[in-house]
Design brief:
Order of helices and strands: HHHHH
Largest sheet: none
Number of strands: 0
Oligomer: single chain
Radius of gyration: 15 Å
């Protein structure tokens, strides 16, 4: 199950790299100023989080690491809960485009929980 979790975390990370690029493109369309800067900062943060999740998945989650389990659980949960609250709930993005990230997150968390705790018991 650790490998399944790792695969879904990698897919989550790749999806969020695409999202980071889309936020960067959105920023390019803004006039120079605070809004553009904040969009660029958000794109940077999202890309760094996505890359971190991918590395943790490959190095730790693949081997059912308890450390990796908690790291990716907290990192992806914080990221996706913010997305749900600030993008999905106000319906700023169509539902069909909003579902893949949280779906990958939920599957990765469930697989990671089953794999990690059945391995460490």
């Amino acid at each position: 199950m650790g490998q399944i979790s790792a695969v879904f975390y990698v897919l989550w990370g790749l999806l969020h790299l695409v999202a980071a690029y889309q936020v960067f493109r959105l920023g390019r369309g803004q006039t120079s100023g605070m809004i553009q800067g904040r969009l660029y900062q958000n794109a940077w943060n999202l890309a760094c989080i996505a890359l971190g999740v991918i590395v943790i998945a490959i190095v730790y989650n693949w081997n059912n690491s308890l450390f990796g389990y908690w790291l990716n659980l907290v990192t992806t949960s914080i990221t996706d809960i913010g997305f749900i609250l600030f993008i999905i709930v106000p319906r700023y993005l169509p539902l069909r485009l909003s579902i893949p990230g949280p779906a990958l997150w939920i599957v990765a968390v469930i697989a990671g929980t089953v794999g990690t705790f059945s391995y460490h018991i």
